[in-house]
Amino acid sequence: MSGIMAAKTLADSGVTDFLILEATEKIWVRMRSQKFRGINVELGANWVEGVNGAKTNPIWELARLHNLRTFFSGWNITDNICTDKGRLPTSEAQEVCQRSAAAWEFANKIGLSRQVNNEPNISILTAERLFGHLPSKPVALEYYNYD
């Protein structure tokens, strides 16, 4: 989408001597879905970040300008923490988030201490294990913290 919008911007400004290169044989390859067990699953660009601040993401404005299907979603991490048995109750999810935040703070302190002492750093997972935090955190929390 960014390459095509760049080309459109150039063409609108009178520049017509350009070439669009794609990584694959398809255009907009990151904006696609695939059927999985009878449901369409989004495989690429399916949300725009930075839509609720003082400065709006220009991609959000482009999507709205071109009447693409848009809606604002206030995503709450505690509503998305699940186990193999389903979604955790809010109180348990909040506890998991608080424990993860404490483990993250502990990992940061270890990292800073090792840096000050000119020691090699350790992985976040190792620091979390030293803290006593289980390494099998829910995927949503893992994504929220690190991706």
UniProtKB/TrEMBL annotation:
Any GO molecular function: oxidoreductase activity
Highest taxon of source: Eukaryota
Xref: InterPro entries: Amino_oxidase (IPR002937), FAD/NAD-bd_sf (IPR036188), Flavin_monoamine_oxidase (IPR050281)
Pfam family, one: Amino_oxidase
Residue ranges of every copy of the Amine oxidase domain listed in the record: 1-96
PANTHER family: AMINE OXIDASE (PTHR10742:SF313), FLAVIN MONOAMINE OXIDASE (PTHR10742)
Family recorded in the similarity comment: Belongs to the flavin monoamine oxidase family.
UniProt name for this protein: Amine oxidase domain-containing protein
Species: Selaginella moellendorffii (Spikemoss)
